[in-house]
Amino acid sequence: MILFVHNPTEKPIACVIRPAKGFDLLGAFHKQMKVLPGQSVIVGVE
User: Fold this and answer.
1) How confident is the model at residue 44 (pLDDT cuts 50, 70, 90)?
2) Long-range residue pairs from 13-17, CB within 8 A, at least 24 positions apart, any chain
3) Mean pLDDT value across residues 3-9
4) Which helix (H) or strand (E) holds 16?
5) Domain tally for the chain?
6) By C-alpha distance, which of 13, 6, 16 is closest to 39?
7) Any alpha helices (H) in 1-46, and if so which ranges?
8) What are the counts of helices (DSSP H) followed by strands (DSSP E) for the chain?
9) I need a surface site. Which of 5, 19, 25, 45 has the fewest CB within 10 A?
10) What is the pLDDT of residue 40?
């Protein structure tokens, strides 16, 4: 699966990408990342 993560702010954002509790359609994954200001990142998760 591929996710598109965007940071529209003027500061870097550190975040964790994971499904919400109880939402198991996408499986279990946990990905930490940092997105720079105004940048978009394409993230592959399994």
Assistant:
1) confident
2) 17/43, 17/45
3) 94
4) strand 13-17
5) 1
6) 6
7) none
8) 0, 4
9) 25
10) 95
